[in-house]
Design goal:
This protein is mainly alpha-helical. It contains 15 helices and 2 strands.
Length: 406
Amino acid sequence: MTIFAISSIPLILVLGNSMLIPILPKMKTELDVSQFKVSLVISVFSIAAAISIPILGYLSDRFSRKAVIIPALILYGSGGLLAGAAAAWFSNAYTWVLAGRIMQGIGAAGTAPIAMALTGDLFKGGEQSKVLGLVEASNGLGKVISPILGSLLALLIWYAAFFAFPAFCLISVLLTIFCIKEKKTQKEPPPFGKYVKGLVSVFKTEGRWLFASYLTGAIVFFTLFGILFYISDILEKEHHIDGLLKGAILAIPLLFMTTTSYITGSKIGKRMKLMKALIILGLLLMTGSFASLILFKKLIPFFAVLVVSSIGTGLVLPCLNSLITGSVPSDRRGFVTSLYGSVRFLGVAIGPPIFSKLMEWSRMGMFLSTAGLTLLSALLCLVLIHVAKKEPTDKKDTLFEKLQFS
């Protein structure tokens, strides 16, 4: 039940963007806004989260994980209520929808990244990697079901998805309260100045590989949400597919990503060489897939090739989670994992608006530039993530001790 409760937190988080992807074209029509403005409904959520995450990460280190997660989920649900009410009853609905989305973004900052730190606190070694794989799979499961769920709710009315958020958040709040028992620590939280010095020392010694890992996380989510935005648009405009069928089609690549994430997380254990190899392999699969998409316009071959990039994403994310969560001391884990969550959110934030511009520019240019980004990320990971030639066997060894930095 503890694992189930932890997994519910990123599941709730991912609904915040993915559930709205299928209704963006309808939202554009109903609110009478431009393509760029409707993309901001995704972006402001992610930007607010990216800004708030480091602050909430520090607070979770200073006090406790649950003390941050529970109020964050409540704020998340409240933002959904405001956005839904604005769409239903306010005259200047678009402005208030954005305000609600900003509230949701701030709440989102205290969910999945803190859940990663909480997993690092409660589980160790191979079990930690397995649970982190489940957390990433839960994130992916949210992406699978959310387009379908968003499409189903839109059959009632297009803004119904906003009113679903409070119900989901309430379930996660109750699970967090009753099913997660944090380990009590006898140590007093360090003063702020000492805490900052500790963080500086972490980034001095681990900065190069953390930079590669953070950038990779941002690029993966940038491409994921950019491609989803593109698919949502072409399904409706070029193929005239809408409603539940559209949601089901959007879920196909996400299902492959989720399945791969679960399998990867359950198999990698503490094997650092394997993690690095899978990260690079996953990025190369993404590169090949994106570069090949320029050759396909028909839906079936297009999605067959796109699935390869989804498998690559499923290889990369659990390995990154395990590297970052297991590599820092627990008293600074909340900030470091939260900063990772922050850059992931930035990737989500810039994906839809940049892809909206790339779609206007050139389809070929869009896919080739995306492939270039993932190839660059693979090269950086190859060069900057160094693994010890002989992995330690002492049970006391941590991932931190297994990494050798450039």
